[in-house]
Amino acid sequence: MSPITAALVTGATDGIGRATARRLAGLVDTLLIHGRRQDALEELARELAPANPGTTVVPLLADFTDLAQVDRLAEAVRDRLDVLDLLVNNAAVAGGQPGVSSRDGHEPAFQVNYLAPVLLTARLFGTLARGGASKIVNLSCAQHRSVRFAWPTMWPTVSQHPKVAYARSKLALAVHTCSLATALEGSGVSAVSVDPGAIETKLLRATFGFSGAPPAAGADHVLHAATTRQDVNGAYFEGKRRVRPAQDALRRDAQFQLDAVTMRLLSLRPPWPSAT
After folding, report:
1. What's the pTM value of the predicted model, to 2 decimals?
2. Active site residue 236
3. Of 114, 166, 237, 272, which one is the catalytic site residue?
């Protein structure tokens, strides 16, 4: 991979995202940090900017429970940059509670953890493609192996158990990443998944009720996936080890089915090359 000049980290104000932003600051010319709270964004920018004078730190506000704000975030990135070398889709929430839906009518975890990063990647694809060797890093989780790809439960229109909702959102992202990687073959842009492991975050405690390794350990795994010089398009990493994702993520029928529904719900035409 070519040197990273500009990077965007979503969900950068806490946990793995914050630790990843800290690692990237000083390594890139422009670091865009996304969060959903203005005060947290400003606090992180105040921390990063003085310690890394060679890096321009740009805070960007968006709430992924509102897809219109994802569109505005992408527009702000495009206004700022001609080329984006690295997109880290880290932002995630725990599974929703009964009766709770996003502003767009979706189960919150499915929208924030899956629909929003797909939409953001699509809106930024031209900016990524101009880099010639850009990388999309989607954060996964071992829990994606605990559920199966099946309709209609795969696309939740009703509330689900929080752990199930979270796992299904991560399975969908793994399926999408595999499909996207196939479409990107030969383009220079690559897409990978990384499971950073059990990391001490608010999400881990809220969903699974236990603690984990320090966020810096998760950031180390994200940076490994982002900076490795090997051809890793379509790779799935557990930590720094390349493994196979759940078998459902590799099923072409599942990929085609999910792509079709996703693009319809997001009112998108895929901007990346068509996979065969």
Report:
1. 0.93
2. no
3. 166
